Amino acid sequence: MNQDARSTRLFAALALLGVIVLGGCEGANLFQAQIGTSDNGPTATITSLSDGETVGLNSSLGVGFDLDAPDGAASFTVLGRYTGAGDEAYVSVTDALDATATSGFATMSPAAGQVAGEVYVVVEIADVDGDTGRDSVRVTITN
Questions:
Q1: What pTM, to 2 d.p., does this model score?
Q2: Quick check: 22 and 86 in contact, CB under 8 A?
Q3: Are the CB atoms for 115 and 85 separated by under 8 Å?
Q4: Could you tell me the domains of the chain?
């Protein structure tokens, strides 16, 4: 991925983060591009979706990812939220990981009332120490 695409992806993720924070959302904010919470924390890399990919309306979405968790993996969460308002486009998936896991896959079902639009798909990895790492891609749902 070239530097302009990374910059655009990071800017979009940070802009979405600001919108969500201003909207008063509760809980951890998962809308960040490939970020870890510590120097030795886990990292996630989405492998089965490409940034800018187009997906069909009301179709399930498979998300593959690689992970590196030096302290041992614990769990993952995969979610899909519309850009802007942050409403759920896909039903989130959370599951445990084996401590030695290096990859994972999740299938998300479309959320009730799914509509066409821009969506951020986010993968968050948590390690056994509670540190997290995230990656995100933007996809477009079309009719």
A1: 0.73
A2: no
A3: no
A4: 3-142 (2.60.40.2550)
